[in-house]
Design brief:
Elements: H1 7-26, E1 42-45, E2 57-60, E3 69-70, E4 85-91, H2 99-109, E5 110-121, H3 126-130, E6 161-167, H4 176-184, H5 188-196, E7 206-212
Parallel strand pairs: 1-2, 1-4, 2-3, 4-5
Antiparallel strand pairs: 5-7, 6-7
Length: about 210
């Protein structure tokens, strides 16, 4: 498996970023400040075959045709400069890797006030423990341990804010989940009530949120 960008991959990433910049310039108003012309640079972790995103640098450990950077996220440091990205997409990937040291790396390559958009399975979800490639389990509070000023004193507590919601599978065959999602996400106290009591018998699906540098 390759752990660096080939010339073809480098060219693809360069062209993609130039296309994004061109689209941003064309869509600008003529009187907008020149500083707004710089496009946002975004990274998509674990893009795979079906989660490739237009306008992102798509990363995966397998060299699929549309992948820009082939890299194993368990191998650190990542092949990016300090403060390179405005946004990082990390959906359905953190449960597969050793994510504590990885979060330090994501902080490093994220620009000031940059955001990580996170999607992780909730620990009550069947998907959380049925997939044999899942090595981590998450509650709502898990990502809050990466926010500075918390109740612990871990060296990786660097981010400024974690804001998220617990999502439930809302279908006609699970009508109660519509009410559960509304109630659970009323505030932090109702989230804790759900996660600490037998209310957990109404299993959630995942947690979606934003971690801000």
């Amino acid at each position: 498996m390759k752990n660096k960008l080939t010339p073809l991959k480098e060219l693809r990433v360069f062209k993609k970023l130039m296309n994004i910049q061109s689209m941003n310039i064309q869509s600008m108003k003529i009187n907008e400040p020149l500083k707004l012309m710089k496009p946002k640079k975004k990274l998509n972790l674990g893009a795979g075959k079906i989660n490739v995103k237009e306008g992102y640098v798509n990363l995966d450990m397998i060299n699929y045709p549309e992948i820009d950077v082939v890299w194993d996220l368990n191998k650190l440091p990542l092949p990016f400069k300090d403060e390179e990205f405005d946004e990082i997409l990390a959906r359905n990937i953190l449960e597969h890797v050793n994510y504590v040291p990885l979060m330090n790396e994501l902080y490093r390559i994220l620009k000031p006030k940059g955001k990580i958009k996170i999607g992780i399975p909730h620990f009550t979800s069947m998907e959380s423990y049925s997939d044999p490639t899942h090595i981590n389990f998450f509650s709502y509070l898990t990502m809050s341990y990466f926010v500075k000023g918390g109740i612990r004193d871990y060296p990786f507590m660097k981010f400024s804010k974690w804001k998220a919601k617990i999502r439930f599978q809302k279908r006609l065959i699970f009508p109660w989940n519509y009410i559960m999602e509304w109630f659970v996400n009323l505030n932090l106290n109702t989230i804790k009530l759900y996660e600490k009591t037998p209310l957990r018998i109404f299993s959630a699906m995942n947690i979606t949120g934003i971690l801000t540098k």
